[in-house]
Amino acid sequence: MTPEVTRRALMLGSVGATGATALAGCGGETVSDEDRPVRIKASDTTLFQPNFNPYSGQALQGASGLIYEPLQVVTAMDIENPEQWLAKTFTWNEDGTMLTAALRDGVMWTDGEPFDAEDVVFTFLMMRDFPAANTAALSIVDVVAVDSMTVEITFETTTFAQEATIGALPIVPEHIFSAFEDPAAEQVEVPIGTGPYTLDRFSDQLYTFVRNDSHWIAEEFAAKHLAWPSYTSQTMATAMQAGDIDWAGDFIANIDKIFVEKDPEHRGHWYPGNGVFNLTFDLEKELWQDLELRRGISLAIDRQELSDIAMLGYVDVPHPTALPRPTFEEFIREDLRDREFVFDPDEAERVLDEAGYERGSDGVRAAPDGTPLSFSLQIPSDYNDWVIATQVLDEQLRRIGIEFTPQGVSFEAWTENRDMGNFDVTLSIVAAGQGPWFMYRSMLSSRHAPDEDGRVFANFQRWYDEETDELLNAFASTEDEAEQSVAIDGLQRIVVDKLPAIPIITAPNWFNYNTKYWTGFPSEENPYALGSPVNGPDRLIILRRLSRTAS
Description:
Blueprint: H1 3-12, E1 38-41, H2 63-67, E2 72-73, E3 83-84, E4 87-92, E5 98-103, H3 117-129, E6 140-147, E7 150-155, H4 163-168, H5 174-177, E8 197-202, E9 206-211, E10 225-229, H6 233-242, E11 247-248, H7 255-258, E12 267-269, E13 273-281, H8 291-299, H9 303-310, H10 345-354, E14 358-359, E15 365-366, E16 374-380, H11 384-398, E17 403-409, H12 411-420, E18 425-431, H13 436-444, H14 466-476, H15 481-498, E19 502-508, E20 512-514, E21 518-519, H16 536-545, E22 547-548
Parallel strand pairs: 1-10, 1-11, 16-17, 16-18
Antiparallel strand pairs: 2-3, 4-5, 5-7, 6-7, 8-9, 9-10, 11-20, 12-20, 13-18, 13-19, 14-15, 21-22
Helix pairs in contact: 8-10, 9-11, 13-14, 14-15
């Protein structure tokens, strides 16, 4: 370890699962304002594994956006005004099947190599040729370099609607990633990016970034150091209470008492809707294809009770369209604006009785073929809010003769089973994305069909429906806002009437902040970005706005 890295290690202190030592320093050392890091908690883990590959499912927070940059930056809070980043301009052909990107001159990779069109070509061909990297399910046909700073990306279908997705993808260096047998699976321990930060120090309980002073707008990032400590959900509350973290994306029970009231001048939180928790069934199994079964279950769910108990009332109940409020309030069609989910256990009983799901002597219903409606509901055991939610849900559904017994498993096991379809019922989250179309595409598109291994990366309930795909394609094939609105209206009606998944809780963008040392975070009064540090584009926007708090 070099003297400079050792000095920074002492300055940042050590933290870990115990949360025992504050990040401000250790051994009584005083940290200057100039060197004080922004202290960020963005993931629940005990030990970090060194992987900064932005296309890996195990990539550490900060890799995407801060080390590997996108072509364009856009936040769901302002989807109409993207900011060009590594690309100076985007230009589409008339039918929306070719995007020409003119790239920014003078950008360098942190190993001294120049950034150019070949890096963009490689990144998009990687997504075409390695499906695990193409999580956005882009229909990439070819990518060519017109010249050293211009790229043409050709798609199989009209792709206007996915401009924000295309722009947000992190660009990787061709001269490094081309040496990997499977670039999407490679563990990258020493990342080389173009971004405003580089990896400074790594341990299994703390990694740190330092500002890339050669970056093209380095002077616009006031924070020279970022610190990412490891905490579990169990130790997070203690760390928050002590003021050890500046920026966090976590559910904390009794946040006002534990966190805000200790220093109300500097501490706060903001939890806008950023998606939805869905009760998710494997629709490839014949049992769950029965709309009346899904409808009966939905009628028996008291979503207000779920929100009050599992989320402590921090978020509102979801809208039947699944569109999160207030984020996408303006897109909810007029005739559905005042629609709410109905909680009616008696009606649920009637629906299930008429559909032939009879109660047995033990009170548990069975399908007409004799299958008992008693299943395990897998969830990550470390997600306390999910654990509580599923306990409440199981209690509610047992009243109508259905058992969804919560089964806590590791996050890795839950992800594997969800992606491979090894479940009857589980919970999954659909993120808002850059607009309603992105959300519905992730939730419902047949483009997210299983790969050759049987894995999916979205549409976890495996809803494959011709009308849905036609509406998604209709939106994507035009830039006419009126035509796009008609498509979104149709998708809302499908979600409401056909219940491809059952929204049960609004998924908030958890965001807690402490302005004692750094100020400029977004808020309900200034919602310029989503606040959680897990959002790649948004954390880039936020760090560019942060400044030192005046003493």
